[in-house]
Amino acid sequence: MAPDGVSQSLLVANGQFPGPMIEGNWGDMVEVTVRNEIYGPEESTLIHWHGLNQPGTPWYDGVISVSQCPIIPGSSLTYRFLLDEFGTSWWHSHLSAQYSQGLFGPIVVHGPSEYGDYDEDLGP
Q: What is this structure's pTM?
């Protein structure tokens, strides 16, 4: 890939750069499955959901060896968490410099509108 016009090796999610957008409404529960297919050399990974507080799910915060163990190559982890803040942020790998190699993407959480009713998800 050549995101800045110079061809280089990248770590990407779902074959795209930047990675896929996580989008939802304030109060929604989100489920994202991350499968680690980083080989040559093998490397663990995990994802940090920047700007989300993770109430009730601190183990999905994506801080290696603090809030969760890394996802080893060939394994997967399904993150389930509440979109507790609204606005625009990003998700990124929290291991080594993987985010600088392309493993990141946007998060958009739609908040209440002052121009009409807002549908707030009350959860499962």
A: 0.79
